[in-house]
Write a structure and sequence with these properties.
Largest interface: A-B, 19 and 8 residues
Shape of chain B: elongated
Largest sheet of chain B: 4 strands, antiparallel
Helix content of chain B: 10-25%
Strand content of chain B: 35-45%
CATH superfamily of chain A: Ammonium transporter AmtB like domains
Distance between the termini of chain A: 48 Å
Number of domains of chain A: 1
Structural class of chain A: mainly alpha
CATH architecture of chain A: Orthogonal Bundle
Order of helices and strands of chain B: EHEEEEHE
CATH class of chain A: Mainly Alpha
Number of strands of chain A: 2
Oligomer: heterodimer
CATH topology of chain B: Alpha-Beta Plaits
Shape of chain A: globular
CATH class of chain B: Alpha Beta
Helix content of chain A: 55-70%
Number of helices of chain B: 2
Chain lengths: 434, 112
């Protein structure tokens, strides 16, 4: 977890009798750490573009691939500007239990020198690393409203959602808020099970229900038009996730290696359990199932990656494959909501499962805090309460934002545009000229 | 002049083309089509959702030949395309009213 990694710097400083503030002011950029985290920043951006763009793009119908990819591209652009102007400040500037202050407005006080929450890194490095998380989190939500959301409505929705939900959530867990190590409900969230996946997942469900099902769903077949793209996207997500999780150690050290290993192991185990679930229930294991399983495992290990041992990472991954399969193949059709690309089914459910299991399986020797298996039931309680509060906060905030956006730009495209395809109607383009 | 339309299994296309060449029929139009007669489709599953797919890929060959050559052409196609299993396809024969060669405006049998 980001704050836990930061606390590791305070302990040696205190041992030397130095006040930690002075230690931060005399901090020097560790070149290995800084290089590693810059690389991780690039890996995490790659997860959105082209990782998620291809993953989601391949899953939609041919007439909508460009508009789906456009949503990822737009987040790469929009979130960057918002983060630079005020997002980084609301997330990581000193503030209260819920949101940061305006110290870093327009990145004032943020320089290329060592500083910020991770004194071993250039402050720019920390800021830009966190930015990549702010980019992919809203991009995940787009999966829920695929093939029917207005571009203008989406841009306004995401601006409000980032401001009201993501920036505060990042602060609450990582930026010094109440769910951080020094808060009144300390939750273990190494790289974003709650901040990224649970929050975007529940928000995605709310959007899917509010905006309604695609025309023709569920009777009409809406098969992925290009599973090859989805495969490539999923592999880019898997590799990029090493930057997402291992980079959250904020240092090129053993903890980063542990997170790297845990991430990989969980993905692998989840592939197998999803394929097994398909073999049992659907008859044949599929590529779509395998790659979805991998993503589910990666989601679930995200909060746990710097807190559990590799054997527990295998367990978490294995469980995530089954649980997310159940959520997508059984729960979704039963309730009938059109979470088109399973943003809730995989990210919401997987992130929630991972958050809870982090509280259960955390090992003090790995990340500094014990979980239920080492006798600390309190951590399991905290993590569970934390993710529930996230569901409530993100869910309600999303509903309100949807009402506002609906009144200003509208959310859903006209029916004939939805039928024709958003590539043409929203963007005037056709993906394939063959 | 008759137009012969044959809907065949895609993997039989090369055999049919070779056989037609063998009897002197060189010109043809090929379409990738989907369809079925009595052949059953197959099941696809995507993230737990099942779909019946009964539009199967086929190939349609269209050739236009002089009326005297119809029987020979049809038999050639049928023998080359047959596997003996359901899904082999069908041949249909139509009248052609006229034909014109674009290059030099020839008409009638000289145009085919």
């Amino acid at each position: 977890m980001k704050m836990n990694a930061l606390r590791r710097w305070k302990i040696p400083a205190l041992a030397l009798g130095l006040p930690t503030l002075a230690a931060a002011q005399e901090a020097e950029i560790d070149s290995g750490d800084n290089a590693w985290i810059l690389v991780c920043s690039a890996l995490v951006l790659m997860m959105t573009g082209p990782g998620l763009a291809l993953f989601y793009g391949g899953l939609v119908r041919k007439k909508n691939i460009l508009s789906t990819m456009m949503q990822s591209l737009a987040m790469m652009a929009l979130m960057t500007v918002l983060w630079a102007l005020y997002g980084y400040s609301l997330a990581f500037a000193p503030g209260n239990d819920y949101v940061g202050g305006l110290d870093y407005l327009f990145l004032s006080g943020v320089t290329m020198d060592a500083g910020g929450p991770a004194p071993n890194l250039s402050h720019y490095t920390f800021m830009v690393f966190q930015l990549m998380f702010a980019i992919i989190t809203p991009a995940l939500i787009t999966g829920a409203f695929a093939e029917r959301m207005k571009f203008s409505g989406m841009m306004l929705f995401m601006t409000l959602w980032a401001t009201v939900v993501y920036f505060p959530m990042a602060h609450m867990v990582w930026g010094g808020g109440f769910m951080g190590a020094d808060g009144w409900l300390p939750c273990l969230d190494f790289a974003g099970g709650t901040v990224v996946h649970a929050s975007s997942g529940i928000s995605a469900l709310v959007v899917a229900i509010y905006i309604g099902k695609r025309k023709g769903y569920p009777g009409e077949a809406m098969k992925p038009h290009n599973l090859v793209f989805a495969f490539i996207g999923a592999c880019l997500l898997w590799v990029g996730w090493f930057g997402f999780n291992a980079g959250s150690a904020l240092a090129a050290d053993g903890l980063a290696a542990a997170a790297f290993v845990n991430t990989h192991f969980a993905a692998a185990a989840a592939v197998l359990s999803w394929l097994l679930a398909e073999r049992i229930r659907d008859g044949k294991p599929s590529v779509l199932g395998g790659i979805t399983g991998a993503v589910a495992g990666l989601v679930a290990i995200t909060p746990a990656s710097g807190f559990v041992t590799p054997m527990w990472a295998l367990v978490i991954g294995f469980l995530a494959g089954f649980v997310c399969y159940w959520s997508v193949a059984l729960v979704k059709p039963k309730f009938g909501y059109d979470d088109s690309l399973d943003a809730f089914g995989v990210h919401g459910v997987g992130g929630t499962l991972g958050a809870i299991l982090t509280g259960a399986f955390a090992s003090e020797a790995v990340g500094g805090t014990a979980g239920a298996i080492e006798g600390n039931m309190g951590q399991l309680v905290n993590n569970t309460v934390g993710v529930l509060l996230t569901w409530i906060f993100a869910g309600i905030a999303t509903w309100i934002i949807l009402k506002i956006v609906d009144a200003i730009t509208g959310l859903r495209v006209e029916e004939q545009d939805e039928v024709q395809g958003l590539d043409i109607t929203e963007h005037g383009e056709e993906a394939y000229q063959i | 002049m008759k137009r012969i339309e044959a809907i065949i299994q895609p993997f039989k296309l090369d055999d049919v083309r070779e056989a037609l060449k063998g009897v002197g029929v060189d010109g043809m139009t090929i379409y990738d089509v989907r369809g079925h007669g009595r052949q059953k489709g197959h099941k696809e599953v995507y993230r737990g959702q099942e779909y019946e797919v009964d539009l199967l890929p086929k190939v349609k060959i269209e050739v236009v030949v002089a009326s005297e050559r119809v029987d020979e052409t049809v038999n050639t196609i049928v023998e080359a395309a047959r596997t003996g299993k359901i899904g082999d396809g069908k041949v249909f024969i139509f009248d052609v009213e006229a034909a014109v060669r674009i290059r030099n405006s020839e008409t009638g049998d000289a145009a085919i």
